[in-house]
Predict the structure.
Amino acid sequence: MDGNGRWADRCGKTRQSGHEKGSSNVYDIFLSCINLDINTATFFAMSSENMNRSKEETEYISILLDNSIKKHLPDLLDNQIKFKVIGDTSHLPKNIKNTIEHAEIVTSEFTKYKLNIAYNYGGQWDVINSIKTLLDKKLLISSENLSQHLSTGGDYPDLIVRTGGYKRLSNFMLWQAAYSELIFLETLWPDFSPKDVSNILTDYKSIKRNFGKVN
């Protein structure tokens, strides 16, 4: 979800306007994924490194997260979509943590569709946090156990799409992305559309994935 600030600059708007526009785009894109039989999608809202931005900006994005969850929760329930925020949310105000916890609890039994928001998330944090959990539980540190205790559990992304023109993972799902297909777009996130999702999926279906094997 890269490019909110640059979109705002291009349109002569504030960075807050860019983040608001980007936030409003998330659920529409997720619904377009569902319509194309994509069951799980994760949106990278804020990286661990993004949290070093100004307090004003990070607080505003956390408020957008809170408002978006409250707005879309009825639809999540109606469509039986499991919702989860992955990342370190410990610093958030209690009211926002309560909003997140409530949405996660009331959608926790759903299995068909999954919507994840990565907030204050980093792939390195995710791996270290998993290892700490294994040590606390006195479990064997193995690939299987580590994978199961990541914030995404056993879910690995088949496809990672980055908008905004940069061609790097920027600390996103470093363990889970081992065999993900990667697509980098010049399109800024607020301009990313359901049509883009459809085009990407068409291209993805043409890829032959061998996972290191030879047929």
